[in-house]
């Protein structure tokens, strides 16, 4: 086993101070590998505020795929590798002497962004930073969670009730949606009264499955929503039949759809954009009509990135409600587990090729 590990440095450190991690060399495509790194210590966080977390599960998504393709991602200063993984779930193993918020045995999910220098960073809304340089664990300038242990400040660790441990790995993706919807409601206070009646979520399909019936459409039906494939019916037509939509959450990764969504958005409606599109696609849009619709309809479009702990806490509440309202439903989203950090190649392959994958995740350690 050990001969396949990169960055091996066991001679200077005893075995229990080392741990495995899945990493890439940022800037070079297809460099995903397993390496040994130093196990973090609670003392690394100043003021006795360190929390040592044993990682149990880590979800992966398109971001990890794109980082491995060297489309973005940067190593922390002083390192030439980046530990992947931003969707974490773990259990507290030890806390520093000044930590009162968490104790060993607590289940936690870690937030992703870490503060920069702007005013927004300083008031704990680091997801709203105006700095050009931002810090994200597992993505940009900070190591991620696809490893055995992490250490962090309690500010960035959100407690998850034990009753949600089986779906705790969904916390980070949930937080992104929570922020998008919370931002929409915050903005809509402009209307004094806002009672959205119809919502559309764009981007709920899975790889290689674009026609019903399949897992996604069945799952969506089970919570009383309707699944519509854009292969069969356009957004404009869907809006005619089922809309107009007071809130549209756009998460397809296909930017032309943003403009179609603007066009069909209801009067006083809000469009929330949460998908990252790194390309340079250009399309022709009915600019006059979209502009006119926005002006005459008092419409809003807002972008939303990442999340801070407030949205993770909302996520805990909504995942709890979901589990009570539809017992067992959330677990069905966890379609593709991959056991063990050493199976990093299988993890990546599953992420890129598995048909019907909703959530691919690494079982780093048993729950
Ligand atoms: Zn993610």
Comma- or semicolon-separated keywords:
alpha/beta; Rossmann fold; 367 residues; 9 helices; globular; 2 domains; disordered N terminus; four-stranded parallel β-sheet; seven-stranded mixed β-sheet; Quinone Oxidoreductase, Chain A, domain 1; 17 strands; binds zinc ion
Overview of this structure, please?
This protein has about 375 residues and is α/β, with parallel strands linked by helices. The protein folds into 2 domains: about 1-160 and about 335-365, Medium-chain alcohol dehydrogenases, catalytic domain (Quinone Oxidoreductase, Chain A, domain 1); about 175-305, NAD(P)-binding Rossmann-like Domain (Rossmann fold, 3-Layer(aba) Sandwich). The protein has 9 helices and 17 strands. The protein has helices at about 60-70, 120, 170-185, 215-220, 235-240, 255-265, 285-295, 310-325, 345-355, and strands spanning about 20-25, 35-40, 50-60, 80-85, 85-95, 105-110, 115, 135, 140, 150, 155-160, 200, 245-250, 265-275, 300-305, 335-340, 360-365. Strands 3, 5, 6, 10, 11, 16 and 17 form a 7-stranded mixed β-sheet that branches. Helix 3 packs across helix 8. The protein is globular, with a radius of gyration of 21 Å. The model is unreliable at about 1-10 (pLDDT under 50). Bound molecules: zinc ion. The site of zinc ion has 6 residues, from helix 3. Zinc ion binds next to helix 3.
